[in-house]
Design goal:
74 residues; mainly alpha; 2 helices; 30% helix
């Protein structure tokens, strides 16, 4: 299982971002932190992502609202 699926997700993301040699980096984030299902909860909070990215350079955040997917009863 990927470290991004575990409590080590923040450390894995920090390591990844700190070693990328790129002018631009695009990160997509789906805010399911307050999900009803604990298996869907994000391992990294948005604020933590922003903190890591801000250490690497100029960061811009673009928000887009969307209707959340619902598969019905699970």
């Amino acid at each position: 299982m990927s470290d991004y699926c575990r409590n080590a997700a923040l450390a894995a993301f920090t390591d990844l971002v700190s070693h990328i040699k790129s002018r631009y980096l695009v990160v997509s984030y789906n805010n399911t932190y307050h999900s009803k299902s604990s298996s869907s909860e994000n391992k990294i909070k948005l604020e933590q992502l922003e903190e890591v990215l801000n250490k690497c350079g100029n960061t811009q955040v673009f928000n887009h609202e969307f209707k959340a997917f619902n598969s019905g009863k699970t």
